[in-house]
């Protein structure tokens, strides 16, 4: 009996192992299977990685996928990343100096896998890059900036130069650092000015919400009810909107005739949209890439909508435009490198 159980276990293990696959690459620089990168940003990344390969001979590839289970794998990202790295054979076959940045969007995991030629020397630097340059952006769902910042930081760690500076002298690098500082300061200036520019709108809304109301029946000054008491005058959908912070309601009551007025104030920035059935702003959406777009064909994505008020559910399938064909040098193949599992990982 034990032999039968053991044989069944081995058989199931083999089936499970055989079920795992890896995606084939369409080019050696950027394979955005999860469709996280707009074409312009993808092209910019491609030029950086192409320059790195041409100037320093290092193969660095960026890969995004929807979820690892699409390829028959469930678990931590490290074994999957190492397997994909070796399946594609990233990096020079003798130096084993390739690098792969893998982002699994819906697993909310990522890894920077490095070739075996680095040993463990790059584990700590890659972890620092993930923790400081990438994950803070990913936690805000800013995948574009996170990936771009991470790529720049990895290239600098590998070469001592940022993209576009491989042939620059010290003076030119200093000028570039000055430009970067100005860009950084510009971002901070915007961050400071934006709230100031929004202040008049906030002041107007506060005045609008606090100005006196008078009863249309007897002209008595009305009283705004506290948040804890106004729910009895709201519909279920309105209460749900307040819980989701997509709409805030003020309830005014006449102390003389009990006339009630309900006023709605939509949130300026909310991830929730209006429901097709109940009309309340209580709908959340989740996107799944069904077929990634390539340079030769369009892709498809499915958006699943769910109303948190009336529980209506529906989905739409949209076409992802075909990607613009890049230069022919984006094709080709990797050079036969391998990884022994070095690098670093992160989750958000």
From TrEMBL:
Which residues does the UniProt record annotate as the domain TPM? 30-155
Please give the Gene3D superfamilies that the UniProt record associates with this protein: 3.10.310.50
Report the protein name in the record. Answer: TPM domain-containing protein
Keyword set, alphabetical order: Membrane, Transmembrane, Transmembrane helix
Keyword Transmembrane listed: yes
Q: Which residues form a coiled coil?
A: none
Which residues fall in a compositionally biased region of kind Gly residues?
333-348
Q: Which domain of life is it from?
A: Bacteria
Span-the-membrane segments of this chain are 184-204
List the residue ranges of the region (Disordered): 321-348
């Amino acid at each position: 009996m034990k032999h039968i159980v053991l044989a069944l276990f081995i058989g199931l293990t083999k089936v499970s192992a055989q079920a795992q696959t890896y995606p084939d690459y369409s080019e050696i620089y950027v394979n955005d299977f999860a469709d996280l990168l707009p074409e312009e940003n993808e092209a910019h990344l491609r030029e950086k990685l192409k320059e790195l390969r041409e100037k320093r001979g290092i193969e660095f590839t960026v890969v995004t996928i929807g979820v690892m289970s699409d390829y028959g794998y469930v678990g931590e990202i490290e074994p999957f990343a190492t397997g994909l790295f070796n399946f594609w054979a990233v990096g020079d076959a003798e130096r084993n100096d390739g690098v792969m940045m893998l982002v699994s969007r819906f697993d909310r995991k990522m890894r920077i896998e490095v070739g075996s030629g680095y040993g463990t020397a790059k584990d700590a630097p890659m972890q620092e890059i993930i923790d400081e340059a990438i994950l803070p952006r990913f936690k805000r769902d800013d995948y574009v900036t996170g990936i771009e910042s991470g790529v720049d930081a990895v290239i600098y760690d590998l070469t001592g130069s940022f993209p576009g500076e491989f042939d620059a002298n010290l003076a030119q690098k200093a000028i570039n650092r000055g430009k970067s500082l100005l860009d950084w300061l510009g971002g901070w200036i915007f961050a400071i000015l934006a709230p100031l520019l929004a202040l008049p709108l906030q002041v107007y809304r506060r005045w609008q919400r606090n100005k006196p109301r008078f009863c249309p029946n007897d002209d008595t000054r009305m009283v705004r009810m506290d948040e804890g008491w106004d729910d009895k005058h709201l519909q279920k959908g309105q209460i749900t909107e307040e819980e989701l912070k997509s709409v805030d309601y003020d309830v005014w009551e006449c102390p003389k005739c009990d006339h009630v007025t309900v006023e709605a104030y939509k949130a300026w920035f909310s991830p929730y949209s209006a429901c097709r059935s109940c009309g309340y702003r209580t709908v959340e959406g989740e996107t799944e890439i069904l077929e990634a777009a390539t340079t030769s064909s369009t892709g498809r994505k499915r958006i699943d909508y769910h109303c948190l008020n009336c529980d209506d559910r529906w989905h739409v399938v949209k076409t992802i435009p075909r990607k613009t064909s890049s230069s022919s040098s984006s094709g080709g193949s990797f050079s036969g490198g391998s990884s022994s599992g070095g690098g670093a990982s992160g989750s958000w």
